[in-house]
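Hi V.,

You were right to ask for the full record rather than a summary. Here it is.
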Amino acid sequence: MSMTDRASKASRWRLRPAILLAALITVASLGIAGWYVAKTSKPIGNTEPYRAAHGVVPGRVNELRVKGVLLRFPASYRVEPQTADEIVHGQADSVSLDVDMSHLLPVSESRPAGNPRVWIELGANFYEDPQRNWAQLASRNWKSIHERPDLGMREFTATEEFSGWGDIAYAGSDPRWRTPKGGPIIFNCVGLRGEAPSQCHTGYQDPRGPYIRYHIYSELLPHLRQVHAEVVRLVDSFIVG
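Predicted structure:
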């Protein structure tokens, strides 16, 4: 073996430990990075791991603290917690659930009760401003305002020629039909112009802190007042401290 061959072989042997060390460092770095991602990344929303991270277990009584208020949900409700930043067990920024209110609809052989849902969110990122809401009803250039005795409310139709939220609004004229802060209960609705709204939403500030908002669909439109009373009753039953 020539001197050149021996020098080349020795050089390769000197490089092998360095290559091995670099490989070990790379593997260790990848392992640490994977562990960090696993520890710091949040599960995907509306999944079982996401609920579990909040302490929510389907089929059991669940408690969550939202906006400083303790909520307790019976096992029959499937709740969906939402948190924008780091998840803390037993807490959430807001929580939502679907509630079956088909019992408000008349049942007949020609028209079954169906399964109309009301989507309720507790702790929504809103804050009720009664003065602004009263001003919306009083000063907006509505195309028409007329009484709806069948709903026990007034119907407000916007002047804009588009179909969007607030194109049609319903608000009660009864002075007793108010939010806890004294504001009007306004159902902002959406649907095709000239047709009944497809869905509506409204909200109010609970005296204990959380903002409550909910959506209803067309089947329940004739029962707006009853739905609101049911939502208020449910929310009161959920808040325990």
